[in-house]
Amino acid sequence: MALNIPPAIATPRLMLRPFAEDDFEPFFQSCVLDPQVMAFYHAYRESHTAAERRARARRDFLDHFTQGSREYGYICWTVTPGPAIDLAPATFLGWCGILSPALDHAEWGPELAFMLARPWQGRGLATEAAAAVMADAWHRFSLPRIHAVVDTPNHASRRVLERIGMRLEGPVVVYGSADMLIYAIEAPVEAA
């Protein structure tokens, strides 16, 4: 699917650009190898060698981002600092994007997902990135609804979803866990 993808989305503190192959290694080093960042990713709780973890992360993340882009035009964005944050512009902070849903739940439609490296958590950056990605998605894809799934005990991510207007719909079994919740939001009237 060919879409007119902008080179970046700017927010007050962030610059988001489409996630590229070159972003995998900074993502792997800053997020996948950090057990605290991966605490709610069930498959990563098991003991793996670095090579096994890398292969799994390529499948679970990079391949998933690419598949959603190829099949639906969905965009996963690399989150980097904007001018208001005193860091090198290419510093990898995390990612945020619209993804194809879990295979067993294609009827749910597109999924909003995000992950920040630990030093950038708790600063409101996930909320800022998620709001920008969702606003872009409403107009770019003419979606009627966007959902997100989150582990029940992941209160920080649940707060992000609530801050951007998503509403809790209830418990679901997805991604190998029965301790998950689904949040969703309908398209705003002006985007519908």
CATH topology: Aminopeptidase
Q: What is the succession of H and E elements? A: EEHHEEEHEHEE
The helix tally amounts to 4
Low-confidence stretches: none
CATH class: Alpha Beta
**Helical residues, percent:** 25-40%
Cross-sheet strand order for the largest sheet: 1-2-3-4-5
Number of strands: 8
Q: How would you sum up the global shape?
A: globular
Overall structural domain count: 1
The main β sheet shows up as: 5 strands, antiparallel
**Proportion of residues in extended strands:** 25-35%
Mean pLDDT over all positions = 91
Account of the 3D structure:
- This protein is of the alpha+beta class.
- The chain has one domain (9-143): Gcn5-related N-acetyltransferase (GNAT) (Aminopeptidase, 3-Layer(aba) Sandwich).
- It contains four helices and eight strands; from the N terminus they run ββααβββαβαββ.
- The strands form two sheets. It has a five-stranded antiparallel beta sheet with strand order 1-2-3-4-5, with helices on both faces. It has a three-stranded antiparallel beta sheet with strand order 6-8-7, covered by helices on one side.
- The radius of gyration is 16 Å and the shape is globular.
- The mean pLDDT is 91.
In short:
This protein is α+β, with helices and mostly antiparallel strands and 192 residues long.
List keywords for this structure.
26% strand; 192 residues; 3-stranded antiparallel beta sheet; 4 helices; Aminopeptidase; alpha+beta
